[in-house]
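User: Quick sanity check before I run a bigger batch. Here is a single chain. Can you write out its predicted 3D structure?
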Amino acid sequence: MSAATYLSEFAKEYNISEELASQILKEALMTIYKKKFGKDYDNLYVEVGRKINLYQVKNVVENVKDEITEITLEEAKENNKTKKELKIGDAIKVPLDINIFGRQMPQILRQLIKQKIVEIHKDIIYNEYKNRVGELFVGKIKSKVEGKNAGYYVSLEPKDVEAFLPMSQVSPDEEFERGNIIKAILIKVNEANSSEEAQLILSRTTEDFVKQLLILNIPEFSDGTFVIKAMARKPGEVTKLVIASNNESIDPVSVTVGKQGVRIKPIRAELGSERLELIRWSDDPKILIKNAIVTSRVLKNRIVEIHHVDFNWDEKKVSVVVPNEFVAPLIGKKGAHQRMLEKITGWNITFIPYSEYEIQLAEKQKEVDKILGITPEEEVEFVEEESIPIEMLPFSKKQLKILRNAGFEDVAEIIEYSIEELANKCEISLNEAMEIWKVIEENVEIEETEE
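Assistant: Done. Predicted structure follows.
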């Protein structure tokens, strides 16, 4: 076989150009040459034609000190195959017998070529994929690896490039067989000289994986009509997505789900048993937090009932009163579910059982009754015949704003509410409701009447 034919078949086998194949061959021969003569020698010249010819490039000198790189003028003339007249200081190519490298040379050469091909392919893959981290890929499971570095080798479409999906990047309830078609996101590209065995690392457990599934399956996410405002994920269990629409006439939740769930179905199928909770975004923290909690399906076939929400705006903390049986599931194991809710809302949340809230409520109501000087059998009414606008009482600016937002205009309207009702209507804490009662008690004469 001629050298040209060999290079052509070599290039075809490894899917590279003949020029690159020739370069790889020369580099491999140089490696063998340096191993034979020493790493500091690089005076090998490779000529690829009908045959592969090797030469040592030597300098013409008067006195030879290094036989590998130098030659006398007399010896140079004997090896001169050109018409050029040689002189001291010229360089000449001296034929090198390939047999000098021993009988193992062809096998060593093949190994070196294969090694260099692998290195080149790694460089190509690195340059092609280094800017594609975060993209979603479709691939076929090739094999499964057990042990410390367990995972799946995956052939990525459409170029049949090999990637690795570590078991740590697979949801707990997922298991794949050879030939299964899967989707995964690229999370890391190792450089060619990395000690890592795999170069492309995939994942199915990141938040971006779910995000890319939405972009792939729901056009409104890819064209920017819908946006993901926040998300939290516990792989294999639940993903919480806070979504908003840039078009007020389109509801992001119902459109994402689709008629009879047809649009969300492919995403749910990809996530398996993992719940996907879609939460409507709101600029109002009160609405957003309620939406997030009510959407949480922590008890089967039951929706959380929120009895009261108390905000600490300065510290960005919120207390939420829920039925007793919902407290533990909403907090979750080691606080995991609560942290997810805090992540997507941006608020520190404390869940209070309703039984505990009832005790606090009863105590506060007693304080209010004491302020008003009434017993449980008595009611209160105004002595004044005329109405009293809330602006007439020395409420603080904050209290006036709270009362106006709740729809109160007259003090008589406030008196009709219990401490719990006032707190809920104004969406304030029991203590804040009591402060409003104190202002009324100090400035309005109230008459006690028996039923």
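The longest helix spans residues 105-129.

User: Great, the batch can go ahead then.
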